[in-house]
């Protein structure tokens, strides 16, 4: 089974995959694979933008969300009369004739990537560009146009062990995987308010709830420190610097990245 592998470290958010999908399917009827995709309201390949952190440390993350052609496809289970079927190459296709009126097909998708075309009274989604594959192409348009190589088609057995199933449909065994998606991070700046200067070269530690030191970094020339690739749990940021009172600040990454901002140090009396 062929699988789409998305490498988040290579994506620059150009939206080329999303636009290529629109170009391929809007204004084109590829029956019996798919009816025409409407110009608005549907994104068979949708680039989701997530803003993480807050000023002054903000990071933007991109990820394409598309049909996973899932091994346990909910849309197939919801369909009647064979309106959704799996091809020999593994692609899950909604028959544009048999699926007429079957809104339950769209409602069943946990990832929200099966849309309902009210004008055509038809559920619709990514086809994996099956019509192009049948015409000799080796990859769908979204992969073909990816300028950075962030999107690739690989055999499922070649998916890296560290890759994760597309989160929106992970429980259904989608054939879309993500790799190198950044984990949580903690950021801060050590500042000496009395002289209005940052503190350079200070050792800052990250300790978990059990008191175990997870990581240690040294503040850079801007007084900044960053802990990256963290698990989602509670931590404490600590620092013991000669001449200043000790620092101990909560940094809980369970729900989001942590930006501590300027940390003003107090001189020892």
Automatic annotation (TrEMBL):
Instruction: Tell me the keywords, alphabetical order.
Output: 4Fe-4S, Iron, Iron-sulfur, Metal-binding
InterPro entries assigned: 4Fe4S_Fe-S-bd (IPR017896), CarboxyPept-like_regulatory (IPR008969), ET_IronSulfur_Cluster-Binding (IPR050954), Ig-like_fold (IPR013783)
Q: Signal peptide span per the entry? A: none
Pfam families hit by this protein: CarboxypepD_reg, Fer4_11
Tagged with keyword Lipid biosynthesis: no
| Ranges for domain 4Fe-4S ferredoxin-type | 58-155
Can the keyword Iron-sulfur be found in this entry's annotation? Answer: yes
Please name the PANTHER family in this protein's record: PROTEIN NRFC, PROTEIN NRFC HOMOLOG
List the protein's name. Answer: Oxidoreductase
